[in-house]
């Protein structure tokens, strides 16, 4: 690839069309670009730009995408431990308001979601998972259970191995 000598042909995002070099920009530029995509409301501050397939706000800069909530956390706090996730108290995936964000492990995030919503994002209900566990004890094939409940074989395997639905309250814990 040829390198540009005196003049670069910059595109809108700040990358040279000829040599792929990035234009030098200050940190203030990226912060301004971030805030330009935030709409402050009375409660949540909504991300008005790109969202990923799961509905989470995405901020892209220099060819790299970040979750916008993580970016906001870094702006406000300066660091983010690798083993932590940025969670939302409001459960709005597009919200970037610092007061609505907190750090937690993936498990803590899932437990928080389950407490608030009863795991409404799941395809299976808790009573169906209990039935599946009973049928697994009776040695019913995973592929048969997947077909019966309209889920993947991998979902049944995860229930069998205890890697999903671990936080579901057991029958003895019901009210």
Task: Sum this structure up briefly.
This protein has six helices and six strands. The chain is an alpha+beta fold.
Can you describe this structure?
The chain is an alpha+beta fold. It folds into 2 domains: 91 residues, Homing Intron 3 (I-Ppo) Encoded Endonuclease, Chain A, CATH 3.90.75; 48 residues. The protein has 6 helices and 6 strands; from the N terminus they run H-E-E-E-E-H-E-E-H-H-H-H. The strands form 3 sheets. Strands 1-2 form a two-stranded antiparallel sheet. Strands 3-4 form a two-stranded antiparallel ribbon. The chain has a two-stranded antiparallel sheet with strand order 5-6. A hairpin with a 4-residue loop joins strand 1 and strand 2. Helix 5 crosses helix 6. The longest helix is centred in the middle third of the chain and has 12 residues.
CATH architecture descriptor text of the largest domain: Alpha-Beta Complex
How many helices in DSSP terms?
6
Mean pLDDT: 79
Order of helices and strands: HEEEEHEEHHHH
Instruction: Give the helix proportion (percent range).
Output: 25-40%
**Largest beta sheet: strand ordering:** 1-2
The protein's oligomeric status is: single chain
Largest sheet geometry: 2 strands, antiparallel
CATH fold assignment of the largest domain: Homing Intron 3 (I-Ppo) Encoded Endonuclease, Chain A
Percent of residues in beta strands?
A: 5-15%
Contiguous uncertain segments of 5+ residues: 169-175
Compute the number of strand runs. Answer: 6
- What coarse outline follows from CA principal-axis ratios? elongated
Q: How many domains comprise the coordinates? A: 2
Radius of gyration: 23 Å
End-to-end C-alpha gap: 67 Å
Question: CATH top level of the largest domain?
Answer: Alpha Beta
Class from helix and strand fractions: alpha+beta
